[in-house]
UniProtKB/TrEMBL annotation, chain A:
Function as written in the Swiss-Prot or TrEMBL entry: Methyltransferase that can methylate proteins and, to a lower extent, arsenic. Catalytic subunit of a heterodimer with TRMT112, which monomethylates 'Lys-12' of histone H4 (H4K12me1), a modification present at the promoters of numerous genes encoding cell cycle regulators. Catalytic subunit of a heterodimer with TRMT112, which catalyzes N5-methylation of Glu residue of proteins with a Gly-Gln-Xaa-Xaa-Xaa-Arg motif. Methylates ETF1 on 'Gln-185'; ETF1 needs to be complexed to ERF3 in its GTP-bound form to be efficiently methylated.
Signal peptide span: none
Family the UniProt entry places it in: Belongs to the eukaryotic/archaeal PrmC-related family.
Domain (Methyltransferase small): residue spans on this chain: 54-131
Keyword Coiled coil: no
Protein name as catalogued: Methyltransferase HEMK2
Molecular function, one GO term: protein-glutamine N-methyltransferase activity
GO cellular component: eRF1 methyltransferase complex; nucleus
Subunit-structure text: Heterodimer; heterodimerization with TRMT112 is required for S-adenosyl-L-methionine-binding.
UniProtKB/TrEMBL annotation, chain B:
Keyword Methyltransferase among record annotations: yes
Origin organism lineage: Eukaryota, Metazoa, Echinodermata, Eleutherozoa, Echinozoa
UniProt-listed PANTHER family: MULTIFUNCTIONAL METHYLTRANSFERASE SUBUNIT TRM112-LIKE PROTEIN, UPF0315 PROTEIN-RELATED
BP GO annotations: rRNA (guanine-N7)-methylation; tRNA methylation
Keywords assigned by UniProt, alphabetized: Methyltransferase, Transferase
Tagged with keyword Transferase: yes
GO MF annotations, alphabetized: methyltransferase activity; protein heterodimerization activity
Protein's UniProt name: Putative tRNA methyltransferase 112-like
Species, as recorded: Stichopus japonicus (Sea cucumber)
Transmembrane segments: none
Amino acid sequence: MNQEVSQLFPTPDFSHLSENDFQDVYEPAEDSFLLLDALEQEAESLNSLRPLICVEVGCGSGIVITFLKKLLSSQCVCLAVDSNHKATSSTVKTADQNKAQVEAVTSDLLGNLQPRIEGKIDVLVFNPPYVVTPPEEVRCPGLPSSWAGGVNGRQVTDRLLSDVHRLLSPSGVFYLITIRENKPDEIRQMLKDRGLESTVIIERKAGPERLNVIKFQRRISAVT
Amino acid sequence: MADPTVTVNEMKIREVDFNPEFISRMIPRIEWKALYEAALSLDVVGNLSPELITDYEKDEDFLKEAHRVLMEVEVIKGFLICPESGRKFPIENGIPNMLLNEGEVGDGPAQSEALQEDDSMQ
Ligand SMILES: C[S@@+](CC[C@H](N)C(=O)[O-])C[C@H]1O[C@@H](n2cnc3c(N)ncnc32)[C@H](O)[C@@H]1O
């Protein structure tokens, strides 16, 4: 019985990606799977939003956006961006492999897409490079940029956080992975000041990391 | 604030199930003029209306054309071109590359300056 339930939204197949691909593209790990679990837990509430536009920033292998697309029962546009072009092409392959339709764009965060998509994103997902590293590592090309977060592991995340309240549609939701070193409470306060309420929907300890997924949405009073 | 134009070397028409309710809900989120101009530059205008009509949600033919251009036309290879700066962003294997320089990942002022230079794209 349980087996059947968990098979309802299986982990996307990424067997088409090899060790060779994972030399350049972030290999699904504990954080990726935590995000899948969080989205699965949210399935009903996500479907009740009947989202039209879903966006994943930093899509890597593409398993998260593919999973999200499969989880949603009504038609929607799923957009995946990553600054690593090998990640966006892996994402398209992963979507194809799982018969999901995902549009990929290689871009630094939302880049030039931002003005067109402001106020229109119903579901936004980000598993950022969150590891605390020397600041200059953030700019390293290649695989380090998939985890190197610089100061407090927040250098990349913060650039998106300052725009999130503008990006979300009135009923939009945003899911973000953080670790304790990212100071999640500070992040929550920062977005609260911009009208976004938050809850920690899932937490897990993975090796030395204390991971969680925070869900943000507009305060009910702000939605009119 | 002009929209980018598209040049296309390779295009694909993919079949996507027509869902009138979805298209009706999508239309308010897209800029009709931009869609029409993109269709023009890709030479796939067909019967797409140049103006958004009122009561489009009741007009199946209108929605079908919107569906075709919005959902079924895919540029595999080409360029997005910013009309003001002339800057070209390549599309390869259906994936537009909007990075200003290959391998660029910004985290600070240098990147935001570069982006501002290209504000015209927006
Ligand atoms: C921790 S990985 C997550 C990958 C995938 N979403 C997952 O959960 O397995 C972070 C991803 O963010 C991407 N990334 C890093 N900096 C970025 C930026 N400035 N803009 C877009 N993507 C970025 C990396 O290339 C990497 O694929």
